């Protein structure tokens, strides 16, 4: 069976022994890529023969005569008529590759949003729910790969020295000022628009400074462990044993692959041409800043469900302007508030777009290094 119906309709070039144009299987071509390569070869042979005035190659129907048959005007036109339509149809002329279909298993579900995960969580509703509380925290997404929690802390609140043995942690700051100390880095202050990350096995601590509470989104790997230096023994918890352990091989992971301890969205977007940056780029943690204008994006074709991902969820954090996702099921949902969260479950078709006339920026989170494989049904 041919993996590509479009390719299966392409007529084959003449075989090595000459012949008539017909079904590719008649020439023993059993793979669409092999057929496309023959189409490409046919076109290239035609071009080479014109440039070098070489004898006709087996792509033409006329057989060699004593190895010295030269192209005539008629044969040129014959070859062009045979090769050009085939090359255009197969994509060989422009170096295109076939677009084969695959079979994928996708669980059937009426609702793919479970636990704290929702198509949209609005920051305004979170703030209203917690009223005038200076100290609050709420998990806003959690699955087998990603866990996000909004945390509000009053001025003077301090998180003591700690590290995570095998995972990194990162934050997006939405209000207030936080003073960070990260092992191997100079202390710095993060404010609204800042994004901060700490690689595995790196000690860190931070404190909310100034006279206003801070609000941050904290993203970790679910089940990540936290360890503390010898002078910072944690308080005991019911059912948890606190042990004194040694870790002689502990080594703070360096900032590599473009990862930085601290960046700020507002500094990045001072450049009107700024498009995107990987804030976190690691094997099990990706945070991709994407800025665009809706007017620069193609219109969504009616009936196009977009794509889905087979291995994990995606989380879209609205950072600036408006961002919309057309979900399978809930339909179109727009995030217009800074800090609004759009959650795309595993297996869910979705079609993300910037919205409105102004510049839109979003932070896309996933647990796998991009580009993620996009699976489409159209």
Please give a structural write-up.
Helix content is 15%, strand content 29%. With 378 residues, it is an alpha+beta fold. It has 2 domains: 5-94, no CATH class; 120-366, Jelly Rolls, CATH 2.60.120. A 6-stranded antiparallel β-sheet has the order 1-17-14-19-13-12. Helix 2 (32-52) runs antiparallel to helix 3 (73-90). The chain starts with a helix and ends in a 12-residue tail after the last strand.
Could you give the topology of this structure?
Blueprint: H1 5-8, H2 32-52, H3 73-90, E1 120-121, H4 123-130, E2 136-142, E3 147-153, E4 158-162, E5 169-175, E6 177-182, E7 188-190, E8 194-198, E9 204-209, E10 214-220, E11 262-264, H5 265-268, E12 276-282, E13 285-292, E14 314-320, E15 322-327, E16 331-335, E17 341-344, E18 350-355, E19 360-366
Antiparallel strand pairs: 1-17, 2-3, 3-10, 4-9, 5-8, 5-10, 6-7, 6-9, 8-11, 12-13, 13-19, 14-17, 14-19, 15-16, 15-18
Helix pairs in contact: 2-3
């Amino acid at each position: 069976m041919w993996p590509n119906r479009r390719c299966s309709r392409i007529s084959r070039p003449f075989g090595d022994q000459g012949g008539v144009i017909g079904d590719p299987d008649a020439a023993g071509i059993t793979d669409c890529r092999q057929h496309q390569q023959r189409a490409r070869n046919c076109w290239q042979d035609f071009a080479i023969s014109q440039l070098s005035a070489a004898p006709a190659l087996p792509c033409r129907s006329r057989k060699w005569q004593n190895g010295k048959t030269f192209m005539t005007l008629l044969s040129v036109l014959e070859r062009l008529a045979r090769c050009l339509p085939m090359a255009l149809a197969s994509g060989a002329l422009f170096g295109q590759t076939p677009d084969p279909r695959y079979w994928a298993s996708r669980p059937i579900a009426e609702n793919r949003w479970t636990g704290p995960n929702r198509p949209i969580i609005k920051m305004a509703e979170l703030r209203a729910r917690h009223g005038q509380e200076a100290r609050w925290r709420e998990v806003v997404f959690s699955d087998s790969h990603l866990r996000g929690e909004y945390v509000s802390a009053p001025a003077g609140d301090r998180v003591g020295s700690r590290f995570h043995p095998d995972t990194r942690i990162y934050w997006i700051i939405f209000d207030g000022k936080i003073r960070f100390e990260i092992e191997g880095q100079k202390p710095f202050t993060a404010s609204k628009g800042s994004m901060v990350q700490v690689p595995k096995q790196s000690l860190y601590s931070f404190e909310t400074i100034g006279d206003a509470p801070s609000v941050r989104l904290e993203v970790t790997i679910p089940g990540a462990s936290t360890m503390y230096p010898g002078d910072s023994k944690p308080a005991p918890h019911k059912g948890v044993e606190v042990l004194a352990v040694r870790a002689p091989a502990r080594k703070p992971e360096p900032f590599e692959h473009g990862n930085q301890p601290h960046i700020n969205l507002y500094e990045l977007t001072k450049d009107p041409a700024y498009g995107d940056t990987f804030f976190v780029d690691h094997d099990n943690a990706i945070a991709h800043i994407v800025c665009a204008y809706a007017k620069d994006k193609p219109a969504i074709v009616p009936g196009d469900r977009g794509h889905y991902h087979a291995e994990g969820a995606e989380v879209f954090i609205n950072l600036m302007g408006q961002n919309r996702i057309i979900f399978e099921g809930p339909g179109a949902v727009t995030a217009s508030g800074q800090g609004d969260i759009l959650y795309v479950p595993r297996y869910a078709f979705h079609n993300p777009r910037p919205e409105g006339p102004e510049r839109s920026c979003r932070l896309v989170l996933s647990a796998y290094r991009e580009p993620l494989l996009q699976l489409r049904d159209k």
